[in-house]
Design a protein that fits this description.
Layout: H1 2-26, H2 32-36, H3 39-61, H4 65-94
Helix pairs in contact: 1-3
């Protein structure tokens, strides 16, 4: 249960901001609609998404242990898949040959 607990703890204590900011810079910057938004609107969207993720993470932290045990296999699969994918993205950006 430590993978899920660590990720949820990180998201609940500010990691959501980093995750959403990274997603916005990686995924949303490619859309012209996002690029035409004023920076203040972009900041508020990132703040709102970060707050939602942080609150959801806090809610998950408060679930009874038996409920966490049920979602653990799915959460671990999602966490490990995302980490592996992020690793490939970093490697892909570093190797622009």
């Amino acid at each position: 249960m430590s993978n899920l607990t660590e990720v949820i703890g990180w998201l609940a204590t500010g990691g959501a901001v980093a995750a959403v900011a990274w997603f916005a810079s990686w995924a949303l910057e490619g859309f012209s609609a996002w690029n035409t938004l004023p920076s203040r609107v972009k900041s508020l969207v990132i703040l709102a998404l970060s707050l939602i993720i942080g609150l959801l993470a806090t809610w998950v932290r408060l679930l009874p242990p038996e409920q966490l045990t049920r979602i653990m296999p799915y959460a671990n699969t999602a966490i490990l898949t995302i980490v592996a994918w992020l690793g490939t993205q970093v490697a892909h950006r570093a190797d622009r040959s």
